[in-house]
């Protein structure tokens, strides 16, 4: 009898659990292809990419420090390379928004950064127009010539974050957790779009919903200390503009 009661209690609890808190099934997401190389930008795309990789800062944010040094005219065509990736911004409406970068919607994330901004604030700013996020970190002390032992830019653990020129706080790079992987699995068939994922229960209200924005990003690598993700809108669609800069100074 006790075993039956325990079994019945367990069954009712499982039926009442939210979708995202269930035990994660076997993932169908695959590992990204490490051998994939960035393609060099063609001449007609160089100028466009240069302007896209220029952050917009107010004088308070010391733009001379945050402007990528690789944008000298003589170095532009030689250094810039780009590729297309899938970027997802997601989070609880009153919680911090996270950025996930994937090679494609069917791949495991290669980068997860928790940003110093509430999800609802970012969505509001994006609906109002152009958003520029800059994440800055400092170079580590050591032998500059020994580049093989230096940390890759997107592997840096902590970032100072600026939104449209205003300092917001700190961004944190982290490994994907169970909830991150569950969200990426639910969005596996989505190449671009925006929406919400189910809340924990009907009584929790809209603040418990996970909002997301997914799009294709152009990943522009200017140097080992400067990379940019520019959100691409569908052809003929004047959607919100979002650019995310990673800079090591």
TrEMBL record:
One of its GO terms (biological process) is hydrotropism. Residues 1-34 are annotated as: Disordered. InterPro entries: MIZ1-like_pln. It holds the Pfam family DUF617. It comes from the Eukaryota. PANTHER family: OS08G0171800 PROTEIN, PROTEIN MIZU-KUSSEI 1. This is Protein MIZU-KUSSEI 1.
């Amino acid at each position: 009898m006790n075993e039956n009661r325990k079994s019945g209690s367990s069954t009712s609890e499982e039926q009442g659990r939210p979708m995202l808190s269930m035990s994660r099934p076997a993932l169908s997401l695959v590992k990204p292809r490490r051998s994939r190389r960035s393609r060099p930008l063609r001449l007609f795309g160089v100028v466009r990419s240069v302007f896209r990789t220029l952050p917009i800062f107010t004088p308070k944010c010391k733009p001379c420090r945050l402007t990528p040094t690789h944008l000298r005219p003589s170095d532009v065509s030689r250094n810039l390379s780009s590729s297309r990736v899938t970027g997802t911004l997601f989070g609880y409406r009153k919680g911090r928004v996270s950025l996930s970068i994937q090679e494609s919607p069917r791949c495991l994330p290669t980068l997860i950064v928790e940003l110093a901004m509430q999800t609802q604030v970012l969505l509001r700013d994006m609906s109002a127009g152009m958003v520029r996020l800059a994440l800055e970190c400092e170079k580590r002390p050591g032998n500059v010539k020994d580049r093989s032992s230096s940390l890759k830019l997107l592997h840096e653990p902590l970032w100072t974050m600026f939104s449209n020129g205003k300092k917001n706080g700190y961004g944190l790079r982290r490994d994907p957790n169970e909830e991150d992987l569950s969200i990426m699995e639910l969005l596996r068939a989505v190449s671009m779009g925006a929406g919400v994922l189910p809340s924990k229960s009907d009584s929790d209200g809209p603040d418990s919903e996970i909002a997301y924005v997914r799009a294709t990003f152009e990943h522009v690598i200017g140097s080992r200390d400067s990379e940019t993700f520019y959100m691409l809108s569908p052809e003929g669609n004047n959607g919100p503009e979002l650019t995310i800069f990673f800079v090591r100074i």
